[in-house]
Amino acid sequence: MGSEIDSLLHNSDPDRYLCALFAQPDQRAGLLALYGLDHELARVALSPSESLIGEMKLTWWRDAVADLGASPPKVRRHEVTEGLARLGGRIEPADLMPLIEARFDDISARPFADLEDVLAYVDATAGVLVRLSLRLVDATDSVSPELALAAGRAWGLTGLLRAFPQRARIGRAPVGADELARQDATPAMLAQGLGAEKVAAARQPVIATARAACETVRAAGALPAQAVPAIGYCRLAATYLDRLPDGPYQIAADLNPLGRRLRLTWLALTGR
Question: Which of 74, 157, 200, 237 is surrounded by the fewest CB atoms within 10 Å?
């Protein structure tokens, strides 16, 4: 992968990026290509631009990924597509489509209906990344489906909760409309940052589900060495949850860069 994608991931997705550095060189390139795609999709979906522009950009990515499966493959000029083209069939274009399709819901600003709706989104984004990453490092057989599912949900739900203020502004905060209704609140209140106490109560089922997923990951014990580059970062979700602010519209605290490096290095050495 080129230095531009490395730099972007180092700054925007440091946990995944640092874990990927522990992979073998050929595997590392695949992980960075995969995370680069996720970065580009998220950047489009969370952009404040008009929805039509966002849809056009996501459609470009959908077509660009589909082109990789053509015969012969058509590789558009972009570091991410060029990196994905070098995966040698380990990941097919169809495997990547859930990542793209899920982001169209972000563009549409459709509020989540309930907790199951939130989980379906997380499984199609963070969950897909976990499964594909395990495949890229040949660790699929060393991680149970239950652990892979929990890892994706722990990381995905925590990430949505940490990004609550930003996602509230685009109408896609990780809280079910049904829970908001129980608290006498509405999705429309989120974009204006209203009803903090009611919204905080409504997001509790999401937080509880994230904590349960983190506990499943913790209870699994040491991660297999070959799986660490692909899912080791998911072990940090519990720490991020502990730093989640009480107010849903407050900015979540980040990890100290040195502490992050030390934690992930220890994880790579011990699996814990």
Answer: 74
Cβ 179 vs Cβ 203: under 8 Å:
yes
Burial letters for 45-64: b for 16+ Cβ neighbours within 10 Å, e otherwise? bbeeeeeeebeebbeebbeb
Whether cis (ω within 30° of 0) applies to the bond prior to 248 is no
pTM of the model: 0.95
User: Per the CATH hierarchy, to which homologous superfamily does domain 3-270 belong?
Assistant: Farnesyl Diphosphate Synthase (1.10.600.10)
HSE-CB at 255 with a 13 A cutoff on CA atoms is 21
Pick the closest to residue 180 from 247, 241, 250, 112 (CA basis). Answer: 112
Which of 32, 170, 51 is CA-nearest to residue 112? Answer: 170
Annotated domain spans of the chain: 3-270
For the stretch 119-169, pLDDT in tens is 999 999 999 999 999 999 999 999 999 999 999 999 999 999 999 999 999
Number of C-beta neighbours around residue 186 at 10 A: 14
pLDDT < 50 positions in the chain = 1-2
